[in-house]
Amino acid sequence: MDGTITLAVGRPTAGHGASVVLSNIEKRFDSVGAVRGVTLDIRSGEFLTLLGPSGSGKTTTLLMIAGFETPTVGDIAIDGNSVVALPPHRRNIGMVFQNYALFPHMTVAENIGFPLKQRGVDRATRARLVAESLELVRLPGYQSRYPRQLSGGQQQRVALARAIVFRPRLLLMDEPLGALDKQLRESLQLEMRRLHAELGITFIYVTHDQAEALTMSDRVAVMNEGLIAQIGTPEDLYDRPCDRFVASFIGESNFMQGVVRGLEDGMVVADCGDATVRAIGGRIATVGETVTLATRPERLGFADTPQCATRQNRMAGTIAETVFAGEHCRYLCHCAGGVSIVLKEPSSATVRRRVVGESVELAWSIADTVVV
Amino acid sequence: MIGRAAFRVLWIVVLMFLVLPILIVVVLSFSSASYLTFPPPGLGIRWYRAYLGSGEWLASTWLSLGVAGCVVVLSTILGTLASLGLARLPPAMRTIMGALILSPLIVPGIVVAIGIYYVFARYRLVGTPAGLVLAHTCLAVPFVVTSVSASLAGLDRRLEQAALSLGATPWGAFRQVTLPLIRPGVLVGALFAFITSFDELIVALFLSGSGAITLPRRMWDDLRFAIDPTIAAVSTLTIALSAMLLLGAHLVRRHQASEPGGTV
Amino acid sequence: MATVAIAPVRLPRVSWQRIGPILLVLPLALYMLAFYLVPLASMLLRSLAEPSWTLDNYRRLAADSVFLEVFWTTLRTACVVTLGTILLGYPVALALSRLRRGAATMVLIVVLLPFWTSVLVRSYAWMVLLGRHGVINELLIGVGLIGAPLRLLNTSFAVHIAMIHILLPYMILPIASVLRQIDGALPRAAAGLGAPPWRVFLHVVLPLSLPGVAAGSLLVFVLSLGFYITPALVGGPRDLMLSMLIAQQVDLLNWPYAACLSAALLAVTLLLIAAFQRLPGMRDLLRTATR
């Protein structure tokens, strides 16, 4: 986009959630470009996750939406109005920080009541709203405790309660579950989805944990080195990654080099080593071009099993390594042309486990192969 | 083992070395003799009475207390503001300003004293309480800045951001979140500022003149001419004051440690 | 909803973020400038200004026998005091780092209390101890070891011992701080590898504690150079230190000379600190030592 502001004239957005439009925003620190041109259209009531490794610019983008960083270039519009010139304390956005940022010298009630106090809400109403918020996050009766008396999970819920008590239309979250152990994280992820459904407001969530992003979000924007690599639903990103980075950052991928032989019915046909591989989607490839094809380990199978009989992509190889990992068995296969493929097969007592050195034929669907 | 016992004896002896001279002064202050002798022949509080009965000693005490009080107010305000600013300055500026503010700790006392005297004499500030206040503040401010800066450093920046995101104005965020959490640092700095000014001698030697004789200055003058046990009494009172302030600072710090100022 | 495209309006953000901090530091900066920096600078400039802008005073200083003798005395005292505080302070620091919390706090209080007692009072305490009818003499006579009182006060010995006493905490605290930070696993590993306790100390603990010793030494040395009160009270005529010479000259209104001496003292102080600052970890140690 060329940095123009879009003014919405007419009725404000329906629904409880704010819409957020980022127009080609950039953020430079000295000469380092933390965010190098991000354009994003976040719909009202959506749960959108900014996913990426550290340094990808996702937190900086969030901070710009919150108002703690100013974009060097570009504009941010919330509900159609540009907010770039608006200081953070007037943006009326809820925010949950990585380590909760609960005020240690205030009780839970005072923490949650803080935004209400800033808005001039009287004491009685404050008490009522605080109690309601605590009910919402399933911590009733915790008003007079201090943050240091709470566990990590409880603090996180208080931080959430504080961020939503004043009914903002937008909630920003910066890796709020990072400090918690796995089980707690997973249960809180479900809590957040539930809250999102109940409140109906827009959630923008930042994380580096791709599993978390896939579980919770309506859409995910994968960021890398200050730019958005791909944006889409979790299924979109998982089944059809658009480039190598997304294919390897989300889940696991096998990458094979191949030379394009031709195009058939929208499928790309390529020679990988000895085998002929067909792939869908991804980029448009020209004949003779060397492309990288990606496929996920759990989508591969052995050709001699019944469910793989109809899969068209085949490749012969030898098992080099086997690892039993409980839920699945992991095989490393060496194929012709120096290609190494990882295959994950769900483990079962009835399925025969392959041995090292065994010759196998791998089979997988064309629909599971993408050009990246 | 011999080695371990010897080591223990060694450091206990050194500790005694540290404490005994001061203890002896305290004991002497309760001596009933009219001259310095140890052990004292009897105990009494005649030297305390001498101190309390002397107009000059009391005047000096009030002056020192008053000057120290003013210094606390002035240095705490200037120092706290400066600490808040220092925390957010770009690194280059912070180093320069920090060096300027902390330099009284490094520059030898005599050099600071005569430097200030050189100019204050010209402006008729010698022999006035105001001159003492102005000079002592320069010496006390580094302690306030060090203490408040340490408190600020332990404070999570995101607390202020959280307050802003929740709708507090920048001033509101400072008043409701930052200030309460740095209060211990300010308090400890104030205590150190007080004691720095109260005990200060070198600058007072030049700036007291004849009109504003601080307590340390009076003790010094007396020491040059006669070792009068009254000084022992005054010293003991000063030691008690230092001990109380030190205890106060320690308690403030311990209270802060049990209620962390940073994010939990 | 109709959309209207407008050219980008970049509202000038009153950069509170830039101006704010400067405004906060400004009052103190101006204050220190007016009542500290300018007085100090103008006094030091006196050393160059008379009779007219010239370095003569400094040239004369280099040849001045009084100055050289005083400078030498000052250096010698600083060295002795530094050494003394190392020898006496290290064991206490070592003990501090090894004791459990309760005992360690007690020892810390014992170390800190003299620290916070004014230098004047502590110097007075030594006058009481070392005087002709002071505690030590009375004790020795009373026990019968000597017949007539010893001349302890107004000697170099008095200056040394009193300054060691006063500066000891400045050596103990940095060393204790560094010792406490030594990874507890290291001495244990050494012991496990077969080293007896004295070897563990000599080859593991001592070398690792050297930064603390360096920081403490720097502090004690620099403070000794500028010391005034104690040598003035307990020293003799031959123990004239640089700071006392400066004070004398100011009393005589000999400003250029006093300014020269001050500049010399300040220069040596700053040089030492600048040199030591380069050692790794020094800055943090100095910060802990200045409370």
Provide keyphrases for this structure.
heterotrimer; A: 372 residues; alpha+beta; Rossmann fold; OB fold (Dihydrolipoamide Acetyltransferase, E2P); 2 domains; 23% helix; B: mainly alpha; MetI-like fold; 78% helix; globular
Characterise this structure.
The complex is a heterotrimer of chains A (372), B (264) and C (291). With 372 residues, chain A is of the alpha+beta class. Helices cover 23% and strands 35% of the residues of chain A. Chain A has helices at 58-66, 108-118, 123-136, 152-164, 182-199, 210-216, 234-239, 244-249, and strands at 5-9, 20-29, 32-42, 47-51, 73-78, 81-82, 94-96, 170-174, 202-207, 219-224, 227-232, 254-264, 267-272, 275-280, 290-295, 301-302, 313-324, 328-335, 339-346, 359-364, 370-371. In chain A, the strands form four sheets. Chain A has a six-stranded mixed sheet with strand order 7-8-9-4-10-11, sandwiched between helices. A five-stranded antiparallel sheet of chain A has the order 14-13-12-15-21. A five-stranded antiparallel sheet of chain A has the order 16-20-17-18-19, with no helix packed on it. In chain A, a hairpin with a 2-residue loop joins strand 13 (267-272) and strand 14 (275-280). In chain A, helix 2 (108-118) packs across helix 3 and helix 3 (123-136) packs across helix 4. Chain A is elongated. Chain A starts with a strand and ends with a strand. Chain B is mainly alpha-helical and 264 residues long. Chain B has two domains: 1-44; 55-258, MetI-like (MetI-like fold), CATH 1.10.3720. Chain B is 78% helix and 0% strand. Chain B has helices at 2-29, 46-53, 55-88, 91-102, 109-122, 129-153, 157-165, 170-199, 202-207, 215-225, 229-258. The radius of gyration of chain B is 22 Å and the shape is globular. Chain B starts with a helix and ends in a 6-residue tail after the last helix. Chain C has 291 residues and is mostly helical. Chain C has a single domain (53-289), classed as MetI-like fold (Orthogonal Bundle). Chain C has 13 helices and one strand; from the N terminus they run βααααααααααααα. In chain C, helix 3 (65-98) runs antiparallel to helix 4 (101-116), helix 3 (65-98) crosses helix 7 (156-181) and helix 7 packs across helix 9. Residues 5-12 of chain C have low confidence and may be disordered. Chains in contact: A-B, A-C, B-C. Chains B and C meet through helix 1, helix 3, helix 4, helix 5 and helix 6 of B and helix 1, helix 3, helix 4, helix 5 and helix 6 of C.
